[in-house]
Amino acid sequence: MHSAGTITRTKNRLSISDAEPKFGSTKLATAAIRGALALAVLSALLLIAARPAQAQTETVLYNFTGGSDGSNPYCRLTADGAGNFYDTTPYGGASGYGTVFELSPNGTGGWSETVLYNFTGGADGSNPWFSYLTFDSMGNLYGTAATGGANGYGVVFELSPVGTNWTETVLYSFANAGDGATPVNGLIMDPAGNLYGGTYYGGAGSGTVFEVSPNGGGGWTEQVIYDVGTGYVGLTMSGAGDIFVGAQSAVLELSPNGHSGWNATVIHTFAGGPKDGITNYSVPVLDKAGNLYGTTFEGGAKNFGTVYKLSPVLAGKKKGTYTEKILYSFKGGKKDGTGPQTGIVFDAAGNIYGTTYSGGKYNDGTVFELVAPVGTGKTYKEKVLWGFDGTDGANLDGSLILDNSGNLYGTAFNGGSREDGVVFEVTP
């Protein structure tokens, strides 16, 4: 069996070892930032001082142990509308190859974790990196695993509830034969039930955007719809069926051409420097007006990353293009975050919420808010809602989700009682 890369893990550090480009940034490696996979070693938890009071509160809903319950959650949670959360871990579980889990209120003010599926590392896949989960209307869950499968290059999988159990079906096994290899990040689904995702390897350049569709015979068919040229991609779809691709160096739009193909347009290429971001790992987010938002891991005024907005030009000679505005440049240090690499979420008032991988008072990452401007000429103001200290989580890789009461939920890759990550809630 071939492999897309050898996965190794030391304590709280992940890497892919092969001759191809690695995930992550090299510019800030000494500052303990890992980009998309190279992770910093967690600071000793016993040396952390007591936290002063803050206006916001953070609650650890679950501490992972690194055993059968999974280890080091990487991505955003998925809610089912009944108060339960679902997600993946790339490590841990019965065989050590990762899990799909559910987190549910236990009726006494706490939360209980249930492992819905343990990856075995064989034909069923292994190591679901950054793989958030997607529900269909029947309650089935869809995701990706970066390795394993029939050829060792990863899978697209479906989990279906059967009574009190869940059954996994591999919809597609990647072969690294023009179809891509090593799928990372989760999947999006169109109204017809087609699934779209990205691979880190296997394209003409590096990664691909792919589609997996029911073939009418009970199986699924995969096709590459775009060669990205850079490994990590995040996808979102508009109501018109256009796919927006957040690649490491650019944001692109893929539009159906009416002949079962796609037209690609580069919306923005990140230039770096003080006036633009660089190294984009975030999934783009659309607002109702068609503006796109995301974060860059580096670049901006202090080279600690940015929050950006891309707005469509609706009239004039530049109609159909997009203009970029940097909404916020991170300053680093104890009073600000460093290295945002996740998407953002809005509340009803237009305030923006997100996470940073590091920075904050204890340099273990933050949850931040950009307060929407009021009045002409005003700008977004940043507030750090929570700075992690390791005991309550560290190093945030996943986007936040927001409930109707304004509470924010997310995962931290490191930290917690066993240093194997946490699920948390922040109440602004």
Structure, described:
The protein is mainly beta and 428 residues long. The chain has a domain at 54-75 and 330-428. It contains no helices and 34 strands. The protein has strands spanning 6-10, 13-17, 57-63, 78-79, 85-89, 99-105, 111-118, 134-135, 141-145, 155-162, 165-173, 181-189, 195-201, 208-214, 220-227, 233-237, 243-247, 250-256, 262-269, 277-278, 285-286, 292-296, 298-299, 306-312, 322-329, 337-338, 345-346, 352-356, 358-359, 366-371, 381-387, 401-402, 408-412, 422-427. Strands 3-34-33-32 form a 4-stranded antiparallel β-sheet, with no helix packed on it. Strands 4-5-6-7 form a 4-stranded antiparallel β-sheet, with no helix packed on it. The protein is globular. The relative contact order is 0.13. Residues 1-53 have low confidence and may be disordered.
Number of helices: 0
Give the DSSP E fraction (strand runs of 2 or more residues).
Answer: 35-45%
List low-pLDDT spans. 1-53
> Given the C-alpha coordinates, what overall shape results?
globular
Summarize the amount of helix as a percent range: under 10%
Count of distinct strands = 34
The pLDDT mean sits at 88
Q: Give the C-alpha Rg.
A: 20 Å
Can you list the strand order of the major beta sheet? Answer: 3-34-33-32
Major β-sheet, in short? 4 strands, antiparallel
Distance between the termini: 49 Å
Structural class category = mainly beta
